[in-house]
Amino acid sequence: MLGFLAGKASSIVQNPAIDYKKFALGASWAIFGLESYILTRQLPCYSIPAPPAALADHIPEDTYKKSQAYGRDKTRWALFKQVYNQTLNALYIGGGAYKWVWTLTGGWMAKMGFGGDRVITHSLLYAGFFTIVSSIPSLPLSAFATFGIEEKHGFNKSTWGLWITDQLKSYAIGAVIGLPVLAAFLKIVDYAGDWFIPALMIFFLSFTFIMQLVYPIFIQPLFNKLTPLPEGELRERIEKLAGSLGFPLKHLYVIDGSKRSGHSNAYFYGLPWSKHIVIFDTLIEQSKPEEVEAVIAHELGHWKHAHPSKLMVVGQINLLITLSAFTLFIHNPAIFRSFGFSEDVAVRQQPVIIGFFLYQLIMNPLDPLISLLMNSVTRRYEYEADRFACALDPRYKALLSSSLIKLMNENLSSPHQDWLYSTYHNSHPSLLERLKAMDDYQPSEKLVVKDEIKREKDL
Ligand SMILES: [Zn+2]
Fold first, then answer.
1. Distance 277 CA to ligand 1 centre (A)
2. What transmembrane ranges does the database entry give (predicted)?
3. What digits encode the pLDDT tens for the residues 287-297?
4. Which residues neighbour ligand 1 (ion) by CB within 5 Å?
């Protein structure tokens, strides 16, 4: 049955009558239309004169006005960015940039004395050049977001010097990590033959684990400083909480998030037996120790419910589907031809890198669907982590609520959200939804007792 379906799908995608370039162009415009429409639905929310009744007591008038102005500016800016990026996108696809860059970098290869059979070297040059050149037009946009919008609303703490070194560091990391990973990816597809899917899945899984080790030691310090949370009430509270749950807390850090931005947060990471909690200095400044403790209780809820591992499994399933579908396209001359590649490239060379780039363009319409699905999963996880905190300690409900309200006010998040905008964009439920869910939640006696027993056991 599966074989039959694969055969059927293969004969459809090999159909020379399909103009893949036209399809990719049409798909990019369709997504542009959809996303722009969603943004325009959110815009009127910033003209609503008062906060929702349930939050009216918690949002000072001045803060509300500021958050509406900030949201309006951000959404207008997002609309502008849509138009800008889609224009470029259409130029790349319509203007034949994919083929043009392959020919250009092929010319460089010949000048450097490399033969036409060095497909992987050529592919690295191609990907490097394409990535750098296509990222240049977005630099002014990124600078304006930081020094225009964030600055205007009082969030930007970055300087031009810091911003420029950040960009250079990002390019350097992209080259140091991205190019070897891409080379390995291409080599695996080349050598593993029919087994390239399981081989790639093992490769990417190992890569994820290695990054868990490498990122905090080598990459994060390039951007931020992590310092151990000093001894005191907050440290004691968090250590006690982590200990009571059996959380393998190795290090407890404060991150200087305030170096670049006034937004605040907390998270954990690490290997299953050795975890680190990181708290933004801004969160500590804005909240009381018991409120930060409640936020960490929520974070530990993510850990207890194994959300990061589950998301990793979802990621692997996504990878499996992506790669399985890729097998239908990888040796399909029709795609190469419709993007203007010569017969030599389309039939003989069939570079994997080009195949993968074009395949992604064709698969783009699935992106909104995948992000919708992912958002619905992560939103469920947020509710689950909130419920975990509420069940753990009856005080956490009020503390987490007040901390979330503070975060909303400090981050100037708008309390009004269009439902479609929220469904499409938000990985977290809105504050109102979370407060309501926590209010409605009554931890059953059984659950609390079960947790008590478990905690005693863990102690
Ligand atoms: Zn969360």
1. 13
2. 124-149, 170-189, 195-218, 311-331, 351-373
3. 999 999 999 99
4. 382, 385
